[in-house]
From TrEMBL:
InterPro entries for this protein: M3A_DCP (IPR034005), MetalloPept_cat_dom_sf (IPR024079), Neurolysin/TOP_dom2 (IPR024077), Neurolysin/TOP_N (IPR024080), OpdA_N (IPR045666), Pept_M3A_M3B (IPR045090), Pept_M3A_M3B_dom (IPR001567)
The protein's Enzyme Commission number: 3.4.24.70
PANTHER family: DIPEPTIDYL CARBOXYPEPTIDASE
GO molecular function: carboxypeptidase activity; metal ion binding; metalloendopeptidase activity
CDD domains (UniProt xref): M3A_DCP
Pfam families (alphabetical): Peptidase_M3, TOP_N
Record carries keyword Phosphoprotein: no
Organism: Marisediminitalea aggregata
Domain Peptidase M3A/M3B catalytic: residue ranges: 268-717
Protein name from the UniProt record: oligopeptidase A
Cofactor binding note from Swiss-Prot or TrEMBL: Binds 1 zinc ion.
């Protein structure tokens, strides 16, 4: 998943999809505020401009938790003073003195959010979570003061409705519309009690989102399953070593830790022969936020839904999803659900086939069981071996983390003309020794593009999953800015002195998140607001990049055995290709169940919702197979309840998959395949570099010559296709 950039112009704050957490209360027009900010800047590193090489870099080595609160206080004061100056400008509103001025404002808080985001996602602690709790409502107040600044909105509206608009560039016209629309859709047109209530709702939601996220993280940290040597049967050697190291880190020398993260849970469920332990690990993972203790999220979900519903009622919408999807590619929740329902029947039908195959294997082995959710991965792996003679652990021996990184660099060089070189150790500050940094340049001209930070390994205090973000995005309106991009993962680190081996799914995720980084690095836009994403489009580019993992050029050069150095055999690649759509029922169904539930939660009156029973009842109503659960159960569904980034928008992965499958066919039909120069040029020009400076639907048509076709997705997943291409 992509994490929103921390670049916070006034417009970006208003339109932000909850990618950032919260911040402190300040006065917007206090004459002392600028002086206070200046005093703090002198000795608070979080507020200072980036210094050093590469156009300046964050001083991660000087971060101190005690600086967070005063930095946020000062940064908010400074930004609100800048906003008031724009709003009260006596000159007539123009693009330059209103829109560009807003783009320019907020540099201090942008810097603070860079560091704040690191603590939130990569270095969380009980002390930081307490700061988050205090800052959440204050940050919400700060955003509301910008969003509900009537004078500011009137100036934005004046520019949007002016004759000047027609004289602006396409990008300038689009960001003016994005900013105007962002304000109008977020309460700027409300008055009196409605305006005050809107701000109060946002304030409470900010606190609830933070608490939801921290509750999930608490369960991930608190619930670790420790096993002993006699319980290791079936587990790969690499996993055993990593589990031993994880236990040692937690003071459990001689034991083996199965941490409560997907990267640890998934391989354990795939290989462990101990069914009782599989059930325990499965239950622990899928019960996050649902344990009836102080970290239980059920009541939070209910309250979040109630507040979101009340808020959109103030704006005149029927339900939250209707409001949320109005400016997305899907446009309406009906369109989003229609896409889901076109694929859902085929997905659950495939699950039925997969379960039948697994039950047959279990029966053949004499295992007196009926397939349960904690059995799915284990017996699916046996089916994979039986049907395709494909052993996931055998494949893993050829998937070295470092080699895959080099493969990604190769693809970036071929498609984007980028060159990656490691920066000298110590020349760029990092927030953890595991973080490495590369310099990115244009291969031909040598022009500096920016830096790429990589934080690949799981550790305590780091949220689960994988994500990408930027510490600075490319813009040119105030001089060209170099990009500071970052990829973050939760791979289980290999033993000391040995390479880290990952699964095929993890390798795809590695490429996926790198796709987000390339989206950042390839940008050619002028203004910060052009980086605001359209949620059901923004995953498309990264999903598409996964396709290059299986290209011959990558396979032949970079998928080599970690011991012998021998390339992966053609016979094994053939097995991988033959099994490409294997277990697609499981993968599609667990994802779609979450996406459908997201839409149902946000199109149903919250008064009728009890989260625990609603999840069960609705999944039963759509025919959810009992052998599978949602990929993200309600109480741990951070995409939609720890913020509003994906709320009513989790379907967007599927929407983007349609684009991905269709775009992939463009490469497959080209003479040069996935490295065809003409198609690659269009890819970079229209699908990566342009960001949100052009309507996504128009951008895709410029790349493909037409709209995407859902049948491409059905073909891609091996599902029945009713119509021809």
């Amino acid at each position: 998943m992509i994490k929103l950039t921390h670049t916070l112009t006034a417009a970006a704050i208003v339109m932000a999809l909850a990618g950032c957490s919260q911040a402190p209360e300040t006065q917007s027009t206090n004459s002392a505020a600028p002086a206070q900010a200046e005093t703090t800047v002198a000795d608070n590193v979080l507020l200072q401009d980036y210094k050093g090489p590469y156009g300046g870099v964050p001083a991660f080595d000087k971060m101190d938790l005690s600086d967070v609160m005063p930095a946020m206080e000062a940064a908010m004061a400074e930004h609100l003073a800048e906003i008031d100056a724009i709003a009260n400008n006596p000159e007539a509103p123009t693009f330059e003195n209103t829109i560009v001025a807003m783009e320019r404002a907020g540099s201090a808080i942008s810097n603070v959010y860079t560091y704040y985001g690191i603590w939130s996602s990569n270095k969380s602690s009980p002390e930081f979570r307490e700061i988050q709790r205090e800052l959440s409502p204050k940050l919400s107040d700060y955003r509301s003061k910008i969003n509900q600044n009537e004078k500011l909105f009137n100036r934005i509206k004046a520019v949007y409705e002016s004759d000047e608009l027609a004289t602006l560039t396409d990008e300038e016209q689009r960001i003016t519309w994005l900013i105007y629309n962002g304000f109008a859709r977020n309460g700027a047109t409300l008055e009196g009690e409605a305006k005050a209530r809107y701000a109060a709702i946002n304030k409470e939601l900010a606190s609830l989102h933070t608490k939801f996220s921290n509750n999930v993280l608490a369960d991930e940290e608190n619930y670790v399953t420790y096993i002993t040597e006699d319980q290791l049967d079936g587990l790969p050697e690499s996993f055993v070593k990593a589990a031993a190291a994880a236990a040692t880190e937690r003071g459990k020398e001689g034991q083996y830790a199965i941490t409560n993260t997907r990267s640890s849970m998934d391989p354990f469920l795939t290989y462990s022969t101990h069914r009782d332990l599989r059930e325990k690990v499965w239950t622990t993972y899928y019960s996050r936020g649902d344990n009836g203790d102080e970290f239980d999220n059920n009541a939070l979900v209910k309250r979040i839904l109630e507040l979101r519903h009340e808020r959109i009622k103030l704006l005149g919408y029927e339900n939250y999803a209707q409001w949320r999807l109005e400016d997305r590619m899907a446009k309406t929740p009906e369109n989003a659900m229609d896409l889901m329902m076109k694929v859902w029947p085929a997905a659950i039908a495939r699950v039925e086939e997969e379960v039948a195959d697994m039950q047959a294997i279990a029966d053949e082995l004499g295992d007196d069981i009926t397939i349960k959710p904690w059995d799915y991965r284990y017996y699916a792996e046996k089916v994979r071996k039986a049907k395709y003679d494909l052993d996931s652990n055998e494949v893993k021996q050829y998937l070295q983390l470092d080699k895959l990184r080099e493969a990604m660099f190769y693809v970036a060089g071929r498609l984007f003309n980028f060159d990656f070189k490691p920066v000298p150790e110590g020349s760029v500050p990092v927030f953890h020794p595991d973080v490495k940094v590369w310099e990115v340049t244009d291969k031909d001209s040598g022009k500096l593009i920016g830096l790429w930070y990589l934080d690949p390994f799981a550790r305590k205090g780091k949220r689960s999953g994988a994500w990408a973000t930027t510490y600075r995005s490319h813009t040119t309106y105030d001089g060209a800015k170099t990009v500071l991009s970052s990829n973050n993962s939760n791979f289980v680190k290999g033993p000391e002195g040995e390479p880290t081996l990952i699964s095929w799914d993890d390798a795809e995720t590695y490429f996926h998140e790198f796709g987000h980084a390339l989206h950042f690095l390839s940008a050619t836009v002028k203004y910060p607001t052009s980086h605001s994403g359209v949620r059901d489009y923004t995953e498309f580019q990264s999903q598409l990049l996964e396709r290059w993992l299986t290209t011959d050029e990558v396979v032949d050069q970079y998928l080599v055995h970690y011991k012998t150095g021998e390339p992966i055999p053609d016979s094994l690649i053939e097995k991988i290709n033959n099994a490409a759509t294997f277990n697609e029922g499981f993968k599609t169904t667990e994802y779609m169940a979450s996406a459908i539930m997201d839409l149902l939660y946000h199109t149903t009156d919250p008064a009728k919702i009890d989260p625990d029973s609603f999840e069960r009842e609705q999944l039963k109503a759509i025919g959810m197979p009992e052998e599978i659960v949602m990929r993200h159960r309600t109480t741990q569904f951070g995409h939609i309840f720890s913020g509003e980034g994906y709320s009513s928008g989790y379907y967007g992965y599927m929407w983007a998959e349609v684009l991905t499958a269709d775009a992939a066919e463009a490469f497959e039909e080209a003479p040069g395949g996935y490295y065809d120069e003409e198609v690659s040029d269009r890819l970079v020009k229209y699908l990566f570099s342009i960001r949100n400076a052009m309507d996504p639907a128009e951008a895709y048509r410029k790349f493909r010559g037409r709209d995407a076709n859902v049948e491409a997705l059905m073909r891609d997943r091996g599902f029945p296709v009713k119509s021809d291409k």
